Every structure is written in structure tokens, then in C-alpha cells.
Amino acid sequence: MKRILTLALLLVAVKSPVPAQDRNSCAAFDKAVKSTYDFKPSMLTESQKTSKSDAMDRFWKMVKDDPDRLAPCLRTALQAAAADRWFCFDASSLLVEVDPSPSSKALQVRSYTAADLDDVDLRDWVSLLARRGFEGFDVSAAASRWMAYPNAHYFLPEHGAYEVKRSTGALFIFGSMDEGQATPALIRILGEPKHPGREDAVSLLMSQATPESLRALKQVDASSFTGKTRSRLQQLLTRPTLLEARAKPKTTREEFIRAFQEMLNGDSSGFMSLVASVPDGEKDVVAVMKPEDLPLVRKVRRRIIAGGNQHSIEYYETFTDILMALVWRAELVK
Description:
By secondary structure, this protein is mainly alpha-helical. Helices cover 67% and strands 2% of the residues. The protein has a two-stranded antiparallel sheet.
């Protein structure tokens, strides 16, 4: 009888993994969530925004002051089927701050993807997703939403009020992703006749510079695209203008590899030094890099575009030219 009673108690413990005290804490936490995130930002007046911002600051402080106890409650609340979209958008970043694990970041990506874009700061939204894309997360669903959003644009005040338009924001997100994830997602968009981002998708697919993207492009029906896009596609599939390797390179393969690896580790000084000493160094990259170096070159390109400004675009285009010169073969587009 004693063994049976012990077994019964163990079974109860298995069915109730959260201690009663913690369940009570989460119940109080859930009430705090509902009282704090009971609004839609785009519907507030300026004074109401200030008041709600203060309330969210208090909520964040509460969690950050006791993360061991409240982070599990926060994660559970974010995963609830009926969770408010604004709460998920805002509080998923809080979760990543107190627990920067891959699972927290994956939940953040899902929360950002589902967010009402009328409510969010679009620059922060795009920038975060681009960073996660570079880290290896699949952010293609969010990028597809961005490309279908009617008000998809924002400005960069510190970069001369540069306007990030729909096509540019799509480049920041899709360009930051591994091409193995981005290319299939772009092909899916092209397969949706009514998707408003189809023309942007074909342009992005042309910049992927992979055998898979080139093979896919030859199957594209370009009849609905603008004349400029049709012309670019036709040229890419027939006689593209490719970078020519310098006969006598000024920079060695070892110098490029070292600078690229340093950049991926957060130090761009070596790369910028190479750019300053040899402004047309892309001709040397094409000359000295080997097929096994392609993943490194692609990763550097993803790192650069995740920066999310017009200078990132310039470097991205240069690296696209490099990759296309290394990848393009006539047999891929026949």
C-alpha cells in the first residue's frame, strides 16, 4: 500500500510540474499583462501613448527584477493561442533580453511576424528581423508580409533622411537570410499571382546569385512585370555583364579571408582598410577566391545588408557582382 501511495504522489507531481506558489505567481503575472497591454498603439492619443509607455516600462522592470521567477510566466503568456499581438511584439523582446536563447529568439521572430504593422515602429521591426535572419532564423514569412503591406516605408534620419521603401526593406530582410531559406520563399511569392510584391521578389531572386535562383528564374513568366525588370531578367539569362578577374591581383586570398572573418566577428577595420587601399578590390576577390570560399563570401554579404542603410546596399550590390561572376554559367539558364 505504501508503494502505491508513493507512486500516486509521483504521478501527481508529474502532472503538476509547476509548484502551486509559481502557478499563483503566473496568475498574478497574467493579470499584470492584461492590465498593461489593454490597448492598440495606433489608436492612442499622444498623452495616452505616454501613459501606456510608462506602464510598459514598469512591466519590463518587474520582469527584469525577477527573471528567474517571471521569465517562465512570460514565455507561457507569449505562447498562448489568444495572446494579444501588441503584447507579443513588445514583450517578446523583453523575453530575449532576460533569456537570449535560440528558443526565445524564435518566439520573438514569430511574434514580430504576426504583429499588426500599423502598431509597430517599422524601422525597429525590419532591423530586428534582419539581425535574426543573419543569425540563421527563417524570417521569410515576415518579409512576405512586409512586401504586401501598403505603408511599407520609413526614414533613416542619421543617414540624410534616406527613405527605406518596400523594395529596400525587403532586401534588408531577405538579403540577411541564408540563400537556402530565401530563394524558396521568393519563388513561393512569385507563384502567388495576386501578391503585390511579385516584382520585388523577382528582383531579389536575381540578386541571390545561386544556381538554384538562376534555374528558377528561367521558369519565370515575366509578362506582367515592367519593361525594366523584363530587360534585366533577359540580360541575366542570356549575356550578363560579369566582373572580370584582375590578371595580377593586388590583394591575396589570405588577406580577404582574414578581413572577412574579422568582419563576421565584429571588426570591420581590416575590410575597410582593404577597400581604402584597393577601391576596385572586387576584381581581386573574383581572381583569388576559390569555390570553397563561396559560403564565407555569402555570409559576409548577409552581414553587410543586415546593417540596414544605403551604404549596406552599395556593398551588397558589389558582393552580388562578385558572387554572380563566380556562380553564373550558361548551362544553368538554358
